[in-house]
Amino acid sequence: MSRKAPIPIRPKPPDAEVEEQIRQRAYQLYEERGRLDGYSIEDWLRAEEEVLGSRQVKAATASS
Predict the structure, then answer these.
(1) 33 is in which domain, residue-wise?
(2) Integer CA distances (angstroms), 58 to 3, 13, 15, 36, in order
(3) Is residue 28 part of a domain?
(4) Residue 36 maps to a domain
(5) What secondary structure does DSSP assign to 5-40, as a single string?
(6) What is the pLDDT of residues 12-59, one digit of tens each?
(7) What is the number of domains present in the chain?
(8) Per-residue pLDDT tens over the stretch 51-63
(9) Domain-located, residue 45
(10) Burial class (CB in 10 A: 0-12, 13-18, 19+), 4
(11) Is residue 24 part of a domain?
């Protein structure tokens, strides 16, 4: 029986600079919605995806 490493649910937490970028983008999304409450988790996850995704693209193009 082979042992497989567990699959992480989320990547390691972002550093403080990246977390601040996510926070700012999530707030922008909140403002773009007209400051409508009730979407904080969605805003955070979308901002996280955008910020981390753009960092991966930048890293990939920089190493090419």
Answers:
(1) 16-62
(2) 34, 19, 17, 32
(3) yes
(4) yes
(5) PPPPSSPPPPPHHHHHHHHHHHHHHHHHTTS-SS-H
(6) 666 889 999 999 999 999 999 999 999 999 999 999 999 998 776 666
(7) 1
(8) 998 776 666 677 6
(9) yes
(10) exposed
(11) yes
